Amino acid sequence: MAGILAIWHDLEDSSSELYERWLVTEHIPERLALPGFVEARRYEAATGSPRFFIRYEVESPEALASPEYLARLASPTPQTREVMKGFRGMVRTACSITHRPPSRALGACAVAAYAEHPAKIDAAGLLRGVAALERDPHVIGAQIWRAVKGPAGAKSSEAKLRPGGDRRIEAGVILDVMRQEDGWALEDRVQAILGNGAKGSRSADVRIHALTYRLLGVWYSADRKGATVSE
């Protein structure tokens, strides 16, 4: 089962220039050089917050507990130490991909929705809701992510650099769409479906977030260069 490291965050304006340079020239290449890392996608919100959404796909969630990855978390680079000071509202979770269609499509935009920890997930109900969304002609791809436990969720040296700590998700639904207008039209539906599939001790306990993001770029590990997303 493939895995995902899912990240949402805001950023202080004063950190923007350094952040862009660090992410593209250092951080993403560093992560994709690690064992099991396959792909990175970076998004920016069309409107709203969190502003940024980043997803790293890995061969399996175990890649997020490898000695090599944990060593990187334990020893942040000087640029990482500086950039992390500007992060705000960090949401970061290691996940497994529990549903996606056999033929994958990459949209110019994505609706990214998540239920925050703690929440109890009705897996069957969530799957039924996502199956209904997949019948919408504006949806060209859909995935369900479920949080996994392990060292990737532990408090690392890198995590301690980010003000306010990291929040976690229990489940996420990601829809690939072609246009941001398509995403805006789907936000309420995906939020309702995820909310129906995630329950707490009281309905107010479950925080559901859904937002439309524009794709900024896709990066592949060295052994995946030239591969297509349908493989």
Task: Give the topology, please.
Layout: E1 3-11, H1 16-32, E2 37-45, E3 52-58, H2 67-74, H3 78-84, E4 87-99, E5 109-116, E6 120-121, H4 123-134, E7 141-147, E8 169-177, H5 180-197, E9 198-199, E10 208-220
Antiparallel strand pairs: 1-3, 1-4, 2-3, 2-10, 4-7, 5-8, 5-10, 6-9, 7-8
Helix pairs in contact: 4-5
Rg, Cα atoms, Å = 17 Å
What is the ordering of alpha helices and beta strands? EHEEHHEEEHEEHEE
CATH topology description: Alpha-Beta Plaits
Beta content: 25-35%
Helix segment tally:
5
What is the share of helical residues? 25-40%
Q: Could you say how many structural domains there are in total?
A: 1
User: Uncertain segments of ≥5 residues (pLDDT<50)?
Assistant: 226-231
The neighbouring-strand order within the major sheet is: 1-3-2-10-5-8-7-4
- Shape descriptor reads globular
Give the termini separation: 15 Å
CATH architecture level-2 label: 2-Layer Sandwich
- In total, the number of strands is 10
Q: What do the pLDDT scores average to?
A: 90
**At the first level of CATH, what is the class?**
Alpha Beta
The assigned structural class equals alpha+beta
Biggest sheet descriptor: 8 strands, antiparallel, barrel
